[in-house]
TrEMBL record, chains A, B:
It comes from the Bacteria. InterPro entries: ArsR-like_HTH (IPR011991), HTH_ArsR_DNA-bd_dom (IPR001845), HTH_MetalResp_TranReg (IPR051081), WH-like_DNA-bd_sf (IPR036388), WH_DNA-bd_sf (IPR036390). The lineage of its organism: Bacteria, Bacillati, Actinomycetota, Actinomycetes, Kitasatosporales. CDD domains: HTH_ARSR. This is ArsR/SmtB family transcription factor.
Length: 109, 109
DNA sequence: TTCATGTGTAAGTGGAGACTGACAGGTGAA
DNA sequence: TTCACCTGTCAGTCTCCACTTACACATGAA
């Protein structure tokens, strides 16, 4: 994980509304309109937040067809576990240099 | 740590400039003007970022007198280690409810 | 056809926070 | 006195992003 990914991750989670979204999605998947109702948030706004969370790899969206034929966009939490201290931050910054030289490290996750 | 503290922490680290500040302070303490020169950042702006980092508990500032009598404001990293996953986020949110009922948990750090 | 449900996006507004420039004040050395 | 440092803060500007309103387009049921 380089500093750009780390930044995307941190700024995604570092927002009250998005913390609420994560909390609401914790028990299981929900589709957008339902989630918007529960949070008392407009749907376009929720879209923005979900998009941000998805780009950062925190949630995953998937279009599904309900029994009565309606298209529902379901979102669920993606598993993530990031440890944050001086060393992990420095590691992310050092990773940038490796990225530039084209030495893509073969690490998973 | 409740969600407010978590939010302060995440939004403090989740900024490119402040990541750079942390990187620069990692080897050891620096005073404000010196740090501003190294980062190529105006001093008032740096003050804002340092203030934000200090409120979130990431850095500590201390006014010191140099040998030649000048006052220097030194900043150094405070030790921190936060693990971030669904459980720790939910724990922070649940902590809010405890805060409201006045049950301050006697946990350290 | 109309209504209630859903997805998806475009266009605009408002405000918080990032950022700049300028100031006042202190010190020791030339 | 002047210079070269330093701290600390105020008052602006500007940019980004959070947020709203409104639209186009589907589906099944009444």
């Amino acid at each position: 994980m380089d500093s750009e990914e780390l930044l995307a991750f941190l700024s995604a989670v570092g927002h009250a509304q998005r913390i609420r979204i994560i909390t609401e999605l914790a028990p299981g998947q929900l589709y957008v309109s339902e989630l918007a109702r529960r949070l008392g948030v407009s749907r376009p706004l929720l879209y923005m937040h979900l998009e941000r969370l998805e780009k950062a790899g925190l949630v995953v969206g998937r279009l599904e067809l309900s029994d009565d034929g309606k298209a529902l966009k379901y979102f669920e939490l993606a598993p993530f576990d990031v440890r944050l201290n001086v060393d992990t931050i420095l590691a992310a910054v050092r990773q940038d240099a490796s990225d530039e030289t084209g030495q893509h490290s073969p690490e998973g996750s």
